[in-house]
Design brief:
Layout: H1 2-27, H2 35-41, H3 43-64, H4 70-99, H5 103-117, H6 122-136, H7 140-164
Helix pairs in contact: 1-3, 1-4, 3-4, 3-7, 4-7, 5-6
């Protein structure tokens, strides 16, 4: 029971930090006019997610004591990753559809200009733009892929954190 309390509390805090980060980027114009800076600042979401997985597993380990092992840590991290990924994906639907519908068109134009500045061949630019559209266009598969990629990355990090924190501390 303590594990679930830790998971839900940490997911809530991490999602609040994530929402705050996205909204700060939005109000500073990094998700509309200054995508060059936004490319860097949007990484805060990933950093919050990754760090929070390790923090959650450390807290679960502390609460579980002698019963803590790799499987418990992995299970907790996986549940955490799925909950966070679902919350973040739903927030991105809200953000792109309601709060900032200009995100996709402005980011697409920025990305295309960046590719043109690199003087890539037209075929390569077209290929990269198709990949970009698949990742950011705001259709259901886009958000499903966001959820799946974040959850899979979280599961991998959960396995790593579970392996690192698999044995209880000696008291």
């Amino acid at each position: 029971m303590a594990t679930l309390k830790i998971l839900f509390r940490n997911v809530g805090f991490a999602l609040l930090l994530t929402f705050a980060s996205v909204m700060v980027n939005h109000f500073l114009g990094f998700n509309t006019a200054r995508h060059d800076i936004g490319d860097i600042t949007r990484n805060a979401v990933t950093i919050v997610f990754w760090c929070s997985i390790f923090l959650t597993i450390v807290q679960v380990r502390s609460a579980a004591g002698a019963e803590h092992n790799f499987l418990n840590a992995f299970r907790s991290g996986t549940m955490y990753s799925v909950l966070y990924s679902a919350g973040f994906s739903l927030f991105m639907v809200l953000y792109q559809k309601v709060i900032n519908p200009q995100f996709y068109p402005t980011f697409r134009q920025y990305f295309e200009n960046k590719l043109i500045a690199l003087k890539l061949s037209p075929d390569l630019i077209a290929s990269r733009m198709r990949q970009f559209d698949m990742s950011y266009n705001g259709d259901f598969p886009t958000y499903l892929l966001l959820f799946l990629y974040m959850a899979m990355g979280g599961v991998i990090l959960s396995a790593i954190a579970g392996a690192i924190y698999r044995k209880p501390r000696k008291v």
